[in-house]
Amino acid sequence: MNMPNPLRAGLLACLLAAPWAQAAAPRPLEETPVRVTYVARDDFDTVKTLIEEALVSRGLVVNNVAHIGDMLERTGKDLGASRQVYTKAEGIEFCSATVSRKMMEADPHNIVFCPYVISIYVLPNEPGKTYVSFRRLQMVGSKQSQEALKDVEKLLRDIVKEALQ
C-alpha cells in the first residue's frame, strides 16, 4: 500500500512515540540518602486516592492517615507561629505482612522501620504541585537484613511509581 509521505511520517511518529509513552516511569525530583521526593501531575486529593489504590492493588491496608498539615495549622496558632508550612499534608501509614515479616525475621530490631509512610503534600507557594515523598531506610545489620530492607524500599518506590504513572 502506497501512502503519502506526510501520512507515513505521522504514522511512523505515532508508532515510535507509543513505547516511550508507556515506558516513561515517574522519576524522583530529589533522591538523597534520607528521602525520595516526586512531583505529581495531579491535585492532592487525586494523588492521595492513587496512592491508596496502589496500596490496595498489592493487598495492603492503610493503618492510619496522619493529618500533618492540619496538626501544624492547629498547633501553630497556640505556638504563635504565623507561617503556613503546607496547604495540605498527610502521611499514609501502612505495613506489609510479607515484606515486614521478612525484614523483622532477618533482624527483630528492624521493627523501628515499621510502619511505612508515604507523605503527600502541597506547599503554599507552589499550589500547582503535589509532592510525594518517603523515607529511605538505613541499610543496617546482616546481609539478610539489608536485603529485606531493600525490598521495603523497593515496595515504597513501586507504590509511588504506580500511583504517579
UniProtKB/TrEMBL annotation:
Signal peptide: 1-23
CDD domains, per database record: DUF302
UniProt entry keywords in alphabetical sequence: Signal
Protein name, as recorded: DUF302 domain-containing protein
Species in which this protein is naturally found: Thiobacter aerophilum
